[in-house]
Structures are given as C-alpha cells and as structure tokens.
C-alpha cells in the first residue's frame, strides 16, 4: 500500500468524524489527474451533492465510499457530464471540463464505467470491446490482446454473446472496454455489486495491477468499503451528498468510529 503522506482532512460542517492525526488542508504528493472543486448537484428539490471537493491522483486509486443514497453515483455522473452541476468545477489534467459535452470527456481521457455493467447483450465479447475503441479509429490488435491478457476469463469467451456472461465476466468486459479508450482516469461505479467475494477480490486485484503497472488512475466508487479500502490509496467518505472525511485508505480502515458510523464494517 502506497503511503500518500497526506494528512487527513475533515470537511467543515456538522457530522464530521475525526480521524487519527486529522488536520484540515491535506498535502498532496502526486499530481492530480482529476480535481473536483466545490461540486454541487440536485435532482429538483433533492440536493444529491453539496460542495464536494476531492482529487484523484496520478497512478493511484481513490475510493469514494458511503451508504445507499450518499451521492456516489451522482458524483461520477456529474464528473463525466451526465448530470450538470449547480455549482463547482471539474478539472481533467488541469483543464476545466465542467461544461464539456459528455462525448468530449471520452476523447479528453475520462472513461466512466457506470453502475450495472451495461454490456451490449446481443454482441459478442469481442464486438463489445471494439465499441470501446470505436472513436479512436483503427486500433492495433495488440491492444485487444493486451486487454484480454488482463482478463483471461473473457479472452476464453471472446466469440460468445455478452448475454451469456456471468456478472463477474460482464464487469471484466466493461472495464476492458473502458481501457480500450486509453483513459487518463477511470471512473468505476460499484464494480463489486452483487458479485461473490472471490470475484470481487480478483477484479480489485486487477485494477490495482493496472494502476501499478500501466500508470492508470482510478476513482473507485464503492459501498463495499472494506474491499475498496484494501486496494485504494486514499478514501473519501460521502454522507448525504457531503464529504465527511478524506484520508489515507489504511488510516480510514483502522478508524473504528468512522467505520461504524459510515462504512458499515
Ligand atoms: N434521477 C434521479 N432523480 C431524482 N433523485 C435521484 C436521481 N438519482 C439519484 N437521486 C437521489 O439522489 C441521492 C443520491 O443518489 P445516488 O444514486 O447518487 O447515491 P449512491 O451513493 O450512488 O447510492 P447507491 O449506493 O444506492 O448506489 C438519493 O437521495 C437519490 O434518491
Ligand atoms: Mg450508486
């Protein structure tokens, strides 16, 4: 586990739980790929995100944790432009992309794997992967081979139609498809949902491997806080649309009060 050297920073406002060594104003040690500043979003009267500030660092996994309805999916949808913020900014590699069209986000280097692992059921595994690279024009076959090498289970099933895949295999396929877009930052929404612990461990280990060997940067949204913190570098806890605490993942996992209050383990 990499030590970010970052100091824990609790959000100002009610409900913040202290962490060991917590102090305001975290010190970052790696360049930010993605910066979210004061982001707010609403669905009519429902204020789903309120003044959320966080950063995803290069070559790191940043986990965003929180209970059902905390605003995790809304955060990813607002970052990738599917939901328009009512306030705040999103910076990708230092560029303000807050108002950029959704399709431009992909070409700028943001890949979003939404909740529910949407494969195109009628297409084969191979065809699904090709969809991820469509906007890039001709992609060398070695890149597909590389993605298959990360996920041998889907390599064995490349001519099968996607509707025949298990949940875990679908998750591998949608992550593989996102990798073919060559993202600077990968946004993953609840990859563990409904999967057996052994498969979750495999998928998280592969994400960690990609970060360590390919320089990928990941913003991982998870309700399964225990598993997410075991692979992440940094954790951000959301509650009712607000950041409660940001800290080193190992420190968050070791904070019993915080775990009981917000993380459910
Ligand atoms: N399309 C929508 N219209 C209205 N309200 C919505 C919509 N999507 C989400 N919400 C509300 O916004 C809040 C945050 O929801 P969100 O889906 O972002 O939470 P989440 O943390 O991803 O939850 P889960 O762990 O269940 O996926 C909730 O109160 C939810 O009811
Ligand atoms: Mg969600």
From TrEMBL:
Gene Ontology biological-process entries: L-amino acid transport
GO MF: ATP binding; ATP hydrolysis activity; branched-chain amino acid transmembrane transporter activity
Superkingdom to which the source organism belongs: Bacteria
Keyword Chloroplast: no
Classification via Gene3D superfamilies: P-loop containing nucleotide triphosphate hydrolases (3.40.50.300)
Record keywords, A-Z: Amino-acid transport, ATP-binding, Nucleotide-binding, Transport
Domain ABC transporter: 34-265
InterPro entries for this protein: AAA+_ATPase, ABC_transporter-like_ATP-bd, ABC_transporter-like_CS, BCAA_Transport_ATP-bd_LivF, P-loop_NTPase
Descriptive protein name: Branched-chain amino acid transport system ATP-binding protein
Transmembrane portions of the chain: none
Membership in a protein family: Belongs to the ABC transporter superfamily.
Pfam families reported in the protein's UniProt record: ABC_tran
């Amino acid at each position: 586990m990499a030590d970010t050297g970052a100091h824990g920073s609790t959000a100002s406002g009610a409900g913040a739980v202290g962490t060991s060594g917590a102090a305001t104003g975290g010190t970052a040690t790696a360049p930010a790929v993605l910066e979210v500043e004061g982001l707010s979003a609403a669905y009519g009267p429902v204020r789903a995100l309120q003044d959320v500030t966080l950063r995803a660092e290069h070559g790191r996994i940043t986990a965003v944790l929180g209970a059902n309805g905390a605003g995790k999916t809304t955060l990813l949808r607002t970052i990738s432009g599917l939901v328009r913020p009512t306030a705040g900014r999103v910076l990708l590699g230092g560029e303000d992309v807050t108002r950029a069209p959704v399709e431009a986000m992909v070409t700028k280097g943001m890949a979003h794997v939404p909740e529910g692992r949407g494969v195109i059921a009628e297409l084969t595994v191979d065809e699904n992967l090709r969809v991820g690279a469509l906007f890039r024009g001709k992609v060398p076959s070695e890149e597909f081979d590389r993605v298959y090498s990360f996920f041998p289970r889907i390599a064995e099933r490349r001519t099968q139609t996607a509707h025949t895949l298990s949940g875990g295999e679908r998750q591998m396929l949608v992550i593989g498809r996102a990798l073919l877009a060559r993202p600077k930052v990968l946004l993953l929404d609840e990859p563990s949902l409904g999967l057996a612990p052994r498969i979750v461990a495999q998928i998280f280990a592969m994400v960690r491997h990609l970060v360590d060997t390919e320089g990928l940067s990941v913003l991982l949204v998870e309700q399964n806080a225990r598993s997410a913190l075991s692979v992440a570098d940094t954790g951000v806890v959301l509650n009712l649309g607000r950041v409660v605490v940001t800290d080193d993942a190992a420190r968050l996992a070791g904070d019993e009060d915080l775990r009981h209050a917000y993380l459910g383990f």
